[in-house]
Write a structure and sequence with these properties.
39% of the residues lie in helices and 18% in strands. It is of the alpha/beta class.
Length: 862
């Protein structure tokens, strides 16, 4: 059961306000921990190691531990991290007093342990002993099977071998305690290790500068993805920095950890009484209490920050309007609204826009008096989003979908990241809830909605199910574009914000749960909708797409289904002699060339090769080989997909392979269909442009000239035209500095109008502006023309080399038909291009420019 699905029957006493437990094993819920269906945050300190007692355990006497627990709870500390396996009585005491115990399992990881069977066996036995001891104690939060393997040891063995052994130790722990949580405590020098098989990730981070610390936490949050991130150690020495500085440091860093959305933090350490390597440590004093347990100033500072809720840490809490747009979303709407009404944020409203639903949506909304309901006839997603925007009263507007439910801290993390930056918008991740085997397979298939980041803080795209905006910024660009009825609205609005000079940030701790499509058919229908949206986006933002119509993203796609096929090994920047403090991994980019066999174009080529079987039987073998290659790509994608262990298996991987095979074909088919047949191009405003438009000459070239005596510049005319096109949604590409034209206008799917300008200086404020319009074929028309030409060559070859009149006639018909279609598209393009000419004429008239006759002669300057 998820956190927000908590039913009234759940006993609220199972987890107290400060996170103390009275039973139940902890579980992972999204990026946090939960007990009994209730989320709690780790507020911990490290405990020990201490001098060995007569029993050989490195723990204080029972009475000292008991008094320590009491003193910790007075400071709202709910967890301790031990560096040795505690004795049974210690865990029993923690059970009785509701303390969480995070057990580090010690073994000689500072040695080249993979070269020694004895060392590996020691590690296995230690992990097994810890798990067997802890499985009967609800106080055990998790097992850390290792703490900070030295970077030179990792390089000696190779990261893959180390990862494999850590996975083995994870399995040992799970066999002894199936319900226990298992992690590995990493640190920045080995952040490149792939630890995705653990329940959550733990990092020890010592960075004193708060801004650097904040940036690195964002980096780690993006690195760990959907799993919780726990800080295993942060601390400062009072011998060198003093108690005042330590208190300020811990206050700031714990606050930053909470606002970034971490699952918790362990402060290093509880006391200055620290014993390791057989000797007491006397030249360091990291404790928040002295050796005799007298509290330092940091003890009281920690108490203040630990007792504060996340929202209380915000400097400001502006009013937020949460907008949910729904169309027949009654199946999940109730869960969505319940989660939104449980948000931990003081000032927000919930607006639901019912876009003409015919199910029980209205009935659900009538049961929710705290929700503002707006009912309208079906106009599409963008229209509904704008309806909510216009009704909003908040300074910020946040959007989620009716098939989502939000984490209680969702708004808090969005607002924090937006307020600490000057960004116009902020987004967060969306995770798949536990919806069963079939939904898990669909969620692991390619094409799911996800975020795209250029840096750890700057996003290129945020998904529509989890995004928030400054209301005035969104209104400033005209809100959402109505032509996006199903999808693509979020992509378009992100790009328009960026074109307007604004930027988008990202809050990795602000997550929502997003129900994926529950059946393969629903998933493929979703991909069809995405294909339609891509066609519309390509016409409006042609510079953002490649020739085939696929998006060209500058950033990195995140999410388990967005990895693609990767070829080659990653590179780790280790520093000289592997001494770098932050050793980062650089993954190879997706091998786009390896994805070609999965494309629709590839399958069309397979069909053409198969048709050639009529003339050459070997062509059928070639076609079969090409089709096999397509399935191989799908199988590789299925193998690389991330799937929960409980849902993994042969049939799961086979279903993902089938969906990975069909997804690009369905998406591309609908992209081409929409682009070529369903798209309705924007038209010029009749108040500016005359209704009677003359087509361009068939040659596709036309010139115009305008005279100005007031110093008007050609760039002013271009900016006026671009502004006009932006407001009306025309597709265009602006010269980036490398082109021999100024502007490309997409008036027709088959043709493009290139506009080039020149300016003559005639003294004073007198300018002659020349404009040349050139009709050019689009990539679709070029492809059609190439196929027609190829068919003609094949027809001639069949007539001359191989007497095959029937086949030659077929290819000749194809060539003539293709040529006729090309001519028709070009002829139609001359009419559509006349609108672009008329737009330039209208903007020139608005600027007061005087149109000149055809090809005016240059005038001599005075």
């Amino acid at each position: 059961m998820s956190i927000v699905e908590l039913s009234p029957e759940v006993d609220d006493r199972k987890v107290s306000e400060n996170g103390y437990h009275t039973g139940n094993r902890p579980r992972v819920e999204g990026k946090f921990f939960a007990r009994g269906g209730q989320k709690f945050r780790i507020k911990g300190v490290t405990y020990g190691p201490f001098a060995p007692n007569p029993d050989g355990h490195q723990f204080p006497p029972r009475q000292r531990v008991l008094s320590d627990f009491v003193l910790m709870q007075s400071a709202h500390i709910n967890s301790v991290r031990t560096y040795h396996i505690p004795p049974h009585w210690f865990l029993t005491l923690a059970d009785e007093h509701g303390m969480n115990v995070f057990i580090d399992v010690p073994w000689p990881k500072h040695l080249c342990f993979l070269d020694s069977e004895m060392a590996k066996d020691h590690a296995r036995k230690a992990v097994r002993a810890a798990a067997e001891l802890g499985r009967s104690h609800p106080s055990v939060l998790a097992y850390s099977i290792c703490n900070e393997i030295p970077t030179n040891v990792v390089r000696w063995h190779g990261s893959e071998r180390v990862e494999q052994f850590l996975r083995e130790l994870r399995d040992v722990a799970k066999q002894a305690d199936p319900d226990g949580l298992v992690t590995y405590t990493n640190f920045p020098p080995t952040e490149y290790l792939d630890l995705s098989f653990f329940d959550f990730l733990t990092f020890n981070v010592y960075l004193h500068d708060p801004k650097t610390f904040h940036r690195y936490l964002l980096h780690l949050q993006n690195l760990v993805g959907e799993r919780p991130l726990l800080l295993g150690e942060i601390g400062m020495d009072t011998l060198r920095h003093g108690e005042e500085e330590q208190a300020a440091f811990l206050t700031t860093h714990v606050r930053e950890s909470t606002l970034v959305g971490l699952a918790g933090v362990f402060v290093f350490s509880w006391t200055d009484d620290w014993h390791t390597g057989g000797y007491p440590i006397e030249n360091w004093a990291f404790g928040i209490t002295k050796r005799d347990r007298e509290p330092k100033k940091s003890y009281f500072a920690i108490a203040d920050v630990f007792k504060s809720s996340t929202v209380e840490m915000l400097s400001e809490t502006p009013r937020v309007s949460v907008i949910v747009c729904t169309y027949n979303g009654g199946k999940t709407l109730d869960q969505c609204l319940r989660s939104l009404q449980q948000l931990n944020y003081p000032d927000y409203e919930i607006i639901v826009v019912d876009d003409g639903s015919t199910d029980n949506t209205r009935e659900i909304l009538e049961r929710s008096p705290a929700v503002r309901s707006i009912h309208q006839t079906n106009h599409g997603l963008s229209h509904a989003r704008n309806t909510g925007l216009n009704a909003a009263t908040g300074e910020l507007v946040a959007y989620t979908d009716s098939d989502c439910y939000a984490d209680p801290e969702w708004l808090t993390h969005l607002v924090d990241q937006l307020q600490r930056t000057n960004a116009a918008a902020v987004g967060g991740p969306n995770f798949s809830p536990e919806d069963g085997w079939l939904a898990a397979c669909v969620a692991a298939s390619p094409g799911q909605p996800t975020h795209i980041l250029e840096t750890d803080q700057e996003a290129e795209h945020i998904p529509g199910c989890n995004m928030a905006f400054r209301r005035q910024a969104l209104l400033g660009i005209g809100g959402f574009d109505y032509q996006y009825r199903k999808a693509g609205d979020d992509v378009d609005v992100c790009w328009r914000l960026q074109h307007a000079g604004m930027w988008i940030t990202f809050a990795p701790g602000a997550f929502v749960w997003h129900h994926r499509r529950q059946t393969p058919r629903a998933f493929l229908q979703q991909q069809a909708g995405y294909g339609e949206a891509e066609a519309l986006l390509r016409f409006k933002h042609p510079d953002r797409f490649n020739t085939r119509g696929g998006g060209k993203w500058r950033g990195v796609l995140y999410g388990p289904s967005a990895r693609g096929i990767r070829v080659g090994k990653p590179i780790v920047e280790r520093g000289v002699f592997a001494t770098g403090l932050f050793q980062t991994i650089y993954q190879p980019g997706q091998a786009h060339w390896a994805m070609i066999p999965g494309t629709l174009e590839w399958h069309l080529l397979v069909c053409l090769v198969a048709v050639a079987w009529v003339f050459k039987p070997v062509a059928l073998v070639v076609a079969a080989g090409m089709l096999t290659l397509s399935w191989l790509v799908a199988v590789l994608l299925a193998v690389q997909a991330r799937l929960a262990p409980e849902h993994d298996g042969f049939f799961s991987r086979w279903l993902i392979a089938v969906l990975a095979y069909l997804q690009p074909i369905v998406r591309s088919w609908n992209r081409y269909h929409t682009r070529l047949f369903d798209y309705r191009h924007p038209k010029a405003d009749p108040t500016h442009v005359k209704d009677s438009l003359r087509p361009l000459p068939l040659a596709g070239v036309k010139t115009a000239a305008f005279w100005s005596e007031t110093g008007n510049d050609r760039t002013e005319l271009l900016h006026q035209v671009i502004s006009y096109l932006d407001k009306r949604g025309w597709g265009k590409t602006i010269d980036s500095g490398w082109s021999d034209w100024d502007l490309e206008i997409y008036c027709h799917p088959w043709t493009i109008v290139q506009i080039t300008t020149a300016q003559e200086e005639h003294g004073g404020q007198k300018h002659l502006l020349r404009v040349r319009f050139c009709l050019r074929p689009s990539s679709y028309l070029k492809a059609l023309g190439s196929l027609a030409l190829l068919s003609a060559f094949i027809a001639v070859g069949l007539f001359v080399e191989w007497p095959a009149p029937f086949g030659a006639a077929l290819f000749l018909i194809a060539a003539v038909g293709g040529a006729a279609l090309c001519f028709a598209a070009w002829w139609r393009g001359t009419f559509r291009a006349s609108q672009a000419v008329a737009v330039v004429d209208a903007m020139a008239a608005d600027m007061g420019l005087i149109p000149c006759g055809k090809n005016p002669a240059p005038r001599a300057s005075p």
